[in-house]
Design a protein that fits this description.
27% of the residues lie in helices and 24% in strands. By secondary structure, the protein is α+β, with helices and mostly antiparallel strands. Among the domains are: 74 residues, no CATH class; 110 residues, 2-Layer Sandwich (Tetrahydropterin Synthase, Chain A). The strands form two sheets. Strands 3, 4, 5, 6, 7, 8, 9, 10 and 11 form a nine-stranded mixed beta sheet that branches. The longest helix is centred in the N-terminal third of the chain and has 22 residues. It is flat and about 120 Å long. The termini are far apart.
């Protein structure tokens, strides 16, 4: 079956076929919708009573005043505890003295005492009170640098660690962590005996010392030497170190000295006025006395 489509001519003009009319209708409709969207935007009328007032313009960033926080801060000197003679450890800034309380300062023994051999030991002090521009601290523990501990631990050696809770005679409770290093590997049974000896010596020394004396023995090496002597019958020890300590409970502490007021110098009393002594006149001769009593213009007779 063969179908043939022909264009129709009406009044001398060619008329489009049905499928051509449909395509033109869709194109004109899309063009009309596009024009409507572009030229006639949708608006919503809001009554004046429901309209929100315009927001105030925000100030420019350049016009805003930037407050310098550092100008409001003051510097406070951190003082070491009484066991270290109240030396100045450092300084810290703060806006309020209450914010300084609780801060922890770290300093090496070399910076505090000048001993170069103790540069690997770090002391920790916590601020407990602030008076004026001075912050008073208390000892909270010590530690050793990791590189120093790694240098002691070598191959074919045994390291024995212990964690010991001790109490001083003035009520301080500390957790001490000593370690012992032998020159060769040892059995676990010997390590157990060494650990027991370390615990017995450490508790005995702490019970007979105040917190100041015990800290001094830990830092100076006297406690390590006592542990090495006690462990020598079991196994000769090459090196003993108290690598760390922590204060678990504070005991009696040296009271913070009151602020020293500058003596007020009283001015010396003014010197008393001395009355001048009466002048002593030399004795006069009898003839001179008569001449003095005679009136002016007259001379005394013989």
């Amino acid at each position: 079956m063969h179908l043939e489509f022909r264009d129709t001519v009406k009044d001398g003009a060619r008329q489009p076929l049905p499928h051509q009319q449909a395509a033109e209708g869709h194109a004109s409709q899309r063009a009309y919708q596009g024009v409507v969207r572009e030229k006639v935007p949708a608006t919503l009328f809001i009554p004046p009573a429901h309209r929100t007032p315009p927001m105030a313009e925000k100030p420019r960033a350049s016009a805003r005043k930037v407050k310098d926080k550092w100008k409001a801060k003051a510097w406070y000197s951190i003082l070491a505890p009484e066991m270290f003679n109240r030396q100045v450890v450092g300084e810290t800034p703060a806006e309020d003295p209450g914010k300084v309380t609780g801060r922890v300062a770290e300093i090496t023994v070399q910076d505090l005492t000048g001993d170069f051999a103790k540069m690997h030991i770090k002391l920790l002090f916590r601020v407990k009170e602030v008076r004026g521009s001075e912050a008073f601290t208390q000892f909270v523990g010590h530690d050793m640098t990791p590189d120093y501990i790694r240098r002691l631990t070598r191959r074919k050696r045994s390291r024995t660690d212990a964690v010991i809770d001790v109490a001083t005679k003035d009520g301080w409770r500390l957790r001490v962590k000593p370690m012992a290093i032998t020159d060769h590997r040892i059995q676990s049974t010997k390590q157990r005996v060494i650990r027991q000896s370390m615990e017995a010596v450490t508790k005995d020394v702490a019970s007979k010392s105040t917190i100041g004396d015990f800290v001094r023995q830990m830092i100076s090496g006297e406690l390590a030497k006592a542990i090495a002597v006690a462990c020598k019958p079991v196994q000769p020890i090459q090196r003993v170190e108290v690598r760390k300590s922590e204060v678990r409970e504070f005991g009696l502490d040296v009271p913070t000295p009151p602020p020293v007021e500058a003596p007020v110098e009283t001015p010396p009393p003014p010197p008393e006025a001395v009355e001048p002594a009466p002048e002593e006149l030399p004795p006069e001769a009898p003839g001179e006395a008569k001449d003095a009593r005679a009136p002016q213009g007259e001379t005394a007779g013989p």
